[in-house]
Specification:
mainly alpha, single chain, flat, 2 domains
Length: 131
């Protein structure tokens, strides 16, 4: 119980600060309402059209391309940290054929190869052409 007490205290104080900040923002913030502010707003456009309109395929291709490169960055940062100090990985595969650094490096290179294939696919489909 002694080990978990600081964690519970930290969570309780964090929750109290969050609730206090939200309450203070409600008290101090402006309260001017109008018909324009009450209207829904999506992606920089007023929603005055049919909700079932069709989107161009390029919109989805750009979105998928963004996700590919965003996820690439999410995976490369931990790889850089792991390759800097892979002592834990070295211990796990000490008797294997591949060292820990080689295993981490190989996994990162396989991931980068998949990203390059995705980039080449997007390039071939013309996602990067400005129209």
């Amino acid at each position: 119980m002694d080990a978990i007490l600081p964690v519970l205290l930290f969570v309780a104080i964090s929750a109290a600060v969050a609730v206090g900040l939200v309450g203070a923002a409600g008290l101090v913030g402006p309260k001017r309402t109008s018909a324009v502010k009450q209207m829904p707003y999506e992606s920089g456009m007023d929603p005055v059209h049919d909700t079932r309109r069709r989107f161009d395929v390029r919109f989805h291709l750009v979105a998928i391309t963004f996700l590919v490169f965003d996820v690439e960055l999410l995976f490369l940062y931990p790889w850089a940290v792991a390759s800097r100090s892979s002592a834990g990985i070295d211990g796990a595969v000490r008797d294997g054929l591949v060292s820990g650094r080689g295993l981490v490096f190989g996994a990162a290179m396989a991931f980068i190869a998949m990203v390059i294939v995705g980039f080449a696919y997007d390039w071939r489909k013309g996602v990067f052409r400005w129209r």
